[in-house]
Structures are given as structure tokens and as C-alpha cells.
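In practice, a research group might receive sequence data for several interacting partners and want a quick structural hypothesis before committing to experiments. The following worked case mirrors that situation: the sequences arrive first, and a predicted assembly follows.
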Amino acid sequence: MKDGPTRDAYGQALVELGADDPRIVVLDAGVSDSSRSKKFGDKYPERFFNMGIAEADMVCTAAGLATTGKIAFATGFSCFLLGRSMDQILVSIAYSNTNVKLVGTHTGLAVGEDGPSAQMIVDMAYMRAMPNMIVIQPADWEETVQATRALIDYEGPAYFRLGRPKVKAIFDSSYKFEIGKGRVVKKGSDLVIFATGIMVQESLVAMEMLEKENINVTLVNISTLKPIDRELVIEMATSHKAVITAEDHNYIGGLGDAVGEVLLDAQISKSFKRIAVRDQFAETGTGPELFEKYGLSANHIAQAVKDSLRPA
Amino acid sequence: MNGSQLTTPDITQLKKTALELRRLALKIIFQAGSGHPGGSFSATDLMTALFFGGILNYDANNPKDPKRDRFLLSKGHASGIYYSVLAKAGYISESDLDSYRKINSERFLSGHAHPKTPGVEIASGSLGQGLSVGHGIAMGTRLDGYDSKVYVILGDGELQEGQIWEAAMSADKFKSNNLVAIVDYNKVAQDNITKDLKDLEPLEDKWNAFNWDVHRIDGHNMEAIMKVLQLPLHPEKPRVIIADTIKGKGVSFMEGKTAWHGVAPSAEDYEKALKELV
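A structural hypothesis for the assembly, expressed as C-alpha cells:
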């Protein structure tokens, strides 16, 4: 079990996986020290392309490399990696169905002090809306390493959402990540929380607080946002009285919508609350401060659980 | 056919082929009832030389050969001429062209090309992306140890997209001398002449400033086209060929007209045009 930022786990996984697989190439847009792709670049300089601060050029270059049989990891701060190149991603990657992995680090309010222009809260909405694109956000170090490996085996476009701050270990090495599969992290009763990314850790803190009041809920990790694990969502929603989703992202287009769509399609009617950014830009401050002020902290999750379970 | 085996291209034959391709492109645009004749005709001579003058190394029966040279039409709206060339080269059949821009097109002959069509490397339709993609291919084939070349045809209006200049900087940084950009400088964009829309000049100076190996030719002079395409690669610089062309070249009433950017000819205009394309 290992604690640490998911971006660090990604950087290390690339170095290890790159040793055996010459198809792996990595591109960055001038932030390789922060995105951790530099580790790969230091080890395999001939397969690392720092394209400078030019994300649109980078993602199309990655698409070109992919057409020659490479597995291209285009890495950068999510805000700019996606924000500067939506059209390029749509045409040269999603529509062309090229084997490019878009790796966006520094996501959500967890980014903190750099402010709203650096806090990516719309990326899952962007990427979920694109045909051919899958969306994965790992919860911890172990899952990041395994998901990086799975992305190499998966042929097609993908968005990999990583975070800046250190997160606690959720899984040990017995965990088996699979694209499209959620995982029950902790089994409780009454209510199920579907969480993704850093919010899995935050939910566990909330659950510890709730356990002191004898409230035991279920926590499910949804690391593949698209295609979402419909079966597990339906099974869990059906077997609990209430549903909460938790994500460090705007409440439009992310996990809440992904889970909600499954429930609507399956005509499952449950108490449903979304822990997410409430369609607003935040401000500067530390990640934990922003989580508290903008409704994402363990306190907010615990309160939402209690509100959901309160008799009508 | 393997283009590289044609060592002494017959200029007269190439001119004949170009004429045949213009007629074919106009036919399929007419049949489709929509399309882009102007930009197809300005690029016709350049594409004819690349595919049928022994420049591009390709095998239509093995379109995914990793050692092949690549061709990218970044100005994807000129699909009328692109598919005509692909049919002539043997990637698709001439009868496939009947489904151009039609629903359920078996070869996916969309208004802008997509790699589902044999011979097409990447999707187009959004200007400004092809040079970056081509550069990625150039880097990938080099990594594999192949000496493949990558040719990318750009529109002149397309050079107004900032991403072109991002790619220009990248290809210089990585010394990608196996990348050849060809600017189809037909001076006319969709709603205006390029100069008034946003002037590109001084264009040679711009590419020189980005440290490219710059050549300028008459893009309808087959001898000049062949001569520049046969030059050995620069030892380290990527190459740009600025080809002065005429939008709608070959049909007098289409030449230099914005009006013929994106419309199909009427039956009457089609007949008139065919009489000129002989």
C-alpha cells in the first residue's frame, strides 16, 4: 500500500512500463517536471517529446505518432491539455480513433492556490461527451499504476484524470483494476456513496466520522467514468435506500450525471445527492480550505449522508 | 502500383492525368450536388505529381505498410480531388466514388476524409491540424528507423490558424527533415480573398524565420513541381514548398472566385466546365 499523488504514480509507472514496451512514447507541453512525465524523458529521451507550451500541436503530434503504431501519452495540466485543444482532440484523436492517452494532471479544486483558471472542473464533462473516448480517474497510487498498464493494453483514445496532492492508499496489490469496473471499497448499509478520484479518500474520512454515530454506509470507487459500470451502479443503488455521488468536478457532466443517467435509464428512483462543485468558479486557497468552502469536504459528505437518511 | 518505381516521369502524361482527375473530381462533386471544386482544382497538379510522378512511395494493395511515405490533405475540404486521386491510385475503385458525400457510403467517402477510407491517414475537416499530425508521423517513422517522408498539403487560408506555426516551431526543434509541407497558395478563402481576410505576406520570410527550407514554385507548372519534389531532403530542416496556384484552375469561370469555394456546378455549368477540361 502506498500513499502519494497519482501524478507521481503515473510518472513512475511510465518509467517501469516503458522499459519493456518500445511502442510507448510520451509527450508533454512544457510542464514535465510537475506532470512527472520528465521521469520517462530522463530514462528514454529518444521516446520523449517536449513540445513546448503548445497543447494543440502536442495532441495532434501524438495522434500522428499513434498512426505509426506508437502508444502516445500526451501529458499536461488538464486545464490546458484539454482546454486548448478540444477541437484537435475531437478530430485527430476521438473521430480518427487514434491510440492516444490524454493524461491531465492538476485537476479539480484540489489544485488549490493557483486559482480557478488552473482548477480543472469541467474536464470529465468535456471528455465524457466525446464518442470513442473513455474516461478514467484513479483513486490512489496502486490504482494509478494498474490503470496506466491497462491503458497500454487498451487500444483507443482515453482521458486519464490525475491529481496534484498526495492521496492515501486505498488499495493494496491484491486489487485488480479493470477498465469499466467499479469496486466496493467498504460495505455498509442504508446508503451508497459512489466516489471518484480524491473523493474516495474524502469519503472514507466522512465514513469514519459517521461510524462514531453508528452510521455505516457503503463506498464504491468509480474509476472508469466512461464506460461506467452500469451493473454495479444498478446493483448498489437497488440494494441501498439512498445514493450520493462525490467528485472534485463541476456537478454538470461528471460522476453525478454518469450515475444519474444509469439510474434514470433503469427507472430506479432513490434519494440522490451530488457532492460536487455547484456550477461556480472557486477562488484561491489551499485544497482543503476550498473543499470546505465549496462543499466537497468530509464534513459536507457526512452531512449529506445524514440528510439523506433523515426520515422524511 | 509502387510510385517510387517511376523514375522518369513523363510530364505530358502527368498533365493528361491531372486533366482526367479534374474531370473526375468535378463529376463526383456534380453528382453529389455539393463539394469544393475551387480548392480541389488548385491542388490537382500538386497531388498528381506526388501520386503519379514517382514521388510518393506507396502500395495501394498494402495501404498500412509501415515503410510507406505518407500524404495528408490538411485542407480537407478538397476531398473531391483527394478521392479521385485515391481511386486512380487504386486505393478505392472508381465506382466507389458514386457514394461521395452520400449516406451509407461503403468506403466512408465523407465530405472530409477519414481513415476508414483506405489511403487516408487521419481525419480532416478542421483546418490547422494536419501539419502537427504529419510531424508526429515523421517522428514516429524516424523512431522506427524508416526513411519515410511525410507530405502535407496546406491551404493558404489555413496558415491563419495559429497551430500551423506551433507545428512549424516543433518541426524545427526536432529537425524533422522528412516533413514536407506544400502550401496550396490559391489566394482565395471561403468568404474573401486571403489577402483581405488576413494577409500572409511576407510568406517566404515567415517560413524562413521559423528555420524551414523554403521553396517557391508555380503550382500549376508540372516541370517546376516535379523538379522541387525531386530535390534531396535538406540535411536537417523541414521543407516547405509555397506553390502559387489558382483557385478553380482549369475552368475559366471558376478561376480566382470565392463563389466557387464550396458549391457544386449546375448541370449547365458542369457541361460548360467539361468543355474546357480537355
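Before designing any experiment, note the following. The first helix of chain A runs from residue 6 to 18. DSSP finds 13 helices and 14 strands in chain A.
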